[in-house]
Structure formats: structure tokens, C-alpha cells
Amino acid sequence: MTRPLDATADPQRLGPVFGKHRHCFDRFAAGWDPPAEQVFIPYEGGSLPGYLFSPPGIAGALPIVIVNNGSDGPINAV
């Protein structure tokens, strides 16, 4: 079976590719203005990782939108 992440039938390649993908997204999130805050959302005895992107120059509570990709999209979580 071919995997859409790296177009390979070799599942051993997925881990290194995913690690590079995650590293690139983390660098993007850190370069945001202001930098995105990594968050962990409690879920079924564990947690789901995520990022909080806030507008610059605004402090305090704000409305929030949670965006979750489907299983056929790229993922940015471990």
C-alpha cells in the first residue's frame, strides 16, 4: 500500500518523514507574530497536542476556533 505522506510502500520511511514535517511546522509556529503557544488538550486519560495562534497586540480572553483536519489530511501531531 502506498502512503500519501511520502508516496512509499515502505512504512519504515514514515517516521523520519513525519519528524521532519513536524519540525518544519514547529519552526513556522515559533516564527508567527506572536509565536504560537503549544497546548495540550485533555482527552480520554491522555492529551491531544495543538497550537494556539493569537493576534498581535491583544491580551486577555478571546473567542477561539478549533480546527481539526480529517484523517485524509496532513497531520501535525505526535
Question: Could you characterize the architecture of this molecule?
Answer:
The protein is of the alpha+beta class and 78 residues long. It has one helix at residues 14-31; strands spanning 37-43, 46-52. It has a two-stranded antiparallel sheet. A hairpin with a 2-residue loop joins strand 1 and strand 2. The radius of gyration is 15 Å and the shape is extended.
Keywords:
78 residues, alpha+beta, two-stranded antiparallel sheet, 1 helix, 23% helix
Number of helices: 1
Shape: extended
- Largest sheet: number of strands, sense, barrel closure: 2 strands, antiparallel
Question: What percentage of residues falls in helices of 4 or more residues?
Answer: 10-25%
Radius of gyration: 15 Å
Structural classification? alpha+beta
The portion of residues forming beta strands comes to 15-25%
Low-confidence stretches: none
Major beta sheet, strand line-up: 1-2
Assembly classification:
single chain
Number of strands: 2
Question: Short summary of the structure?
Answer:
Helix content is 23%, strand content 18%. The protein has 78 residues and is of the alpha+beta class.
Helix and strand layout, with pairings?
Elements: H1 14-31, E1 37-43, E2 46-52
Antiparallel strand pairs: 1-2
